[in-house]
Structure formats: C-alpha cells, structure tokens
Amino acid sequence: MAKRESLGRGLGALFSDLADDGGDRSRFQFCAIEALKPNRFQPRRQFDPEEQKGLVESIRETGILQPVLVRKDGDAFEIIAGERRWRAAQAAGLKSVPVVVREVDDRQLAELTLVENLLREDLNPVEEAEGYRVLQDRFGLSQEEIAGRVGRDRSTVANFLRLLKLPQAIRDGLIRKDISAGHARALLALSSEKLQHEAFRKIRERNLNVRQAEALVKRLEKEKKGKSAPASVSSLIGNLENELSRRLLTRVRIRTGKRKGGRIEIRFHDNEDLQRLLEHILDGKG
Question: Could you tell me the domains of the chain?
Fold first, then answer.
C-alpha cells in the first residue's frame, strides 16, 4: 500500500473536481467511440489479454461505470486516462463511451498518463523508464522534478532510467519477465555489451537469483580484466615493431617467450642490405 499512498496526489489531486464526476451524469458527455484516439504519451505497450477479457465482459454486462478522461484534439479527443476501458468498449461492441473533457498541455498529459499507470501498477520496468525519459528529454524535467511529480525517490527514477542503457535484447527479456529489474541493474555493472549478453544468457539458463547474478557479473568482469593485461603488452610490442621497422627501413619482428625472454628478428634482402643495417645499428644512427 505504501506505493499507492506515495502516488496519492495522482489524477484526483491534479483534477480535484474529477472525483465528483461519477455521481453527476451532467458532468460528462457521450462520445462516438471512433472519435477517441490513444494517448501519444502512453508508456504502456502491453495489455494483459486475460485482464482485458474480464473488462470486456464487465462492460457488456454493466457498461462503463467510470468515464474516460480526454482532451480535445482537433476534431477528435485524445485519451488522458482510461485507454483500457476504451479498448474494452470497442471489443464489447459499444458505439459510444462517457467522457470528461479537460484542458491540459502536453507536459500535463505525459505526467497524468504516467501517474495513472503507476497507480494501477500496470507498467513493466522498461515502460516505466520510457515514461520518465519522455518527461526528461521532451519536457526538460530533472530527475528530482520527475520524482516529485510521480511520488518516487530520485534514486528510484535514476535506476529506472539506467535500464534504458541495456541492449534491446536484454530490455525485451525484462519485458517478458525472463529477468527482474534487479537482474538488469546487475548487468549494468558490466563494461561491454558482449559480457552483458553472456551474463544474461547464463542467468536465464541457470535460473540465477539476483545475488547469484551479481556474483556472476563480478566474476566475468574480473576475468575480462585478467585477459586485458596481455593485450596491452601485445599492443606495446606492436608499436615497438612499427617504430624499429620505420627506423631500419625493413621489417622487424619481436618474438616473446611463453614465460620470459624472446628475440628480435630483422629482415635483410642481401649482403649489401645486411651491411647497411649493421652500419646503421653499430653507428647508432636513426
């Protein structure tokens, strides 16, 4: 209940007169169902088929008890809150639905839509993160401001936004509930997409819990750091080979031993070329 109480300002607080609409039929009007259109800022992308089926049957039996909240948009009405009811009404064969018309700007529309979904706990983690990103990128709200409007902690908003940095395949897995938001946050600690995909696969295959996933992530990152050291040595040797080849005007190769030591190979074409190289090296030229 703590979550719902923290979001209590929601639609009722933003439109304080909305709570009275259900008891006064004169406060709303009926609108042709085809005159309504979905909310352009709707973060929700998935609607539970079974949940919708139950709502359709309910509407067939008793009609729509709560009006759909809309705003005027040209010759049509854009839904502010109640898209599930509108979709179910279409499936139930209704020709019109009760609506309450309000004047709101785009930012208010985005905020109201997100708050309504959070109140109903309808959003998956990626959808919630996308809703925050709209408020941040399109309307310039800070994480602190977003948190205040939706009744969250700033750190919670920040953690959701970080999920959008994951590769699309992993975000899809989060939507399908292959992994939890806790698993996803653990994957963010990995420094490359390749490792993130590898860890994601292992988490699903082994059915790891969040703590086990965090341990896996630490191990993979440690292994990567261990492998990166030889690569840096190899890069240094390659640079030395290039510099010696440039100075001696011939191909130079540095061969290192498995444990220590090694040799330097300098190519020459004939005796004259060998003499040139010896003079160059012994005289200390270049």
Answer: 2-165 (3.90.1530.10), 229-282 (no CATH)
